[in-house]
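Handout, section B. The chain below has 239 residues.
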Amino acid sequence: MKWLLLISVGLYLFGAFRRPFFAAGLVAGAAYLAARGIELGRLPLVGPHDTLAFFSVSIGLMALPFLFSPVLLKSSSFTWVTGCTAALFGLMAFLFPAFAMPLPPVLRTLWFELHVALAFFAYALFAIGAVLGALFLAGGERRLLDLQYRAALVGYTFFSGSMVSGGIWGYFAWGTYWLWTPKELWTSILWVYYTFWLHLRLKGTGGDRALAWAGIAGFAVMLFTYLGVSILMKSSHSF
């Protein structure tokens, strides 16, 4: 089945030249996740391999509305950079084995699946926001900064939903909404970061280039929350 993910990576890269290739990359990645889900009997959301593949597909899915935005319709830069980003995380999935172990009882709940899926949809939109911020810095098109704000705002909404569903899952799993693990702490840092970023952007305090850079920095905070904490710190959360 991994050949589907490999095809997805290749199509994302060719998507720089033709949007249908990008869409086909999304379809191939989604087909891989569906095949994994059928094999496992659940959503593939546990372990680095499955979450990286899910993240890659999430980037492609969340990018679709932006691909057909009038601001980006005639530009190949957004498609190319976003496709390379999705391809990168898809390739990273091959660095890790695809586990087929059954879920422990603590994870057998819809709240867990909702928590993880919403988190990765948010991560994907934060990544897209970073791409749009970089394109704004490169070309100075003010409308790109507006799109960056929209991406971050929708991502923030998804992320807030993820935190709520994660708290409910934690209550059923451990009898508490909060455990002060490194993952939960950095999740809060990421949420507070985008809270302030969106507030400053909404207030229109000026400093467009600073705001664009701050949006890119938010993506770095997100990456550390997702990968850095999982690799470098011990936590009841893994990936």
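Note. The chain has two domains: 1-103, 109-239. Compare this with the example in section A.
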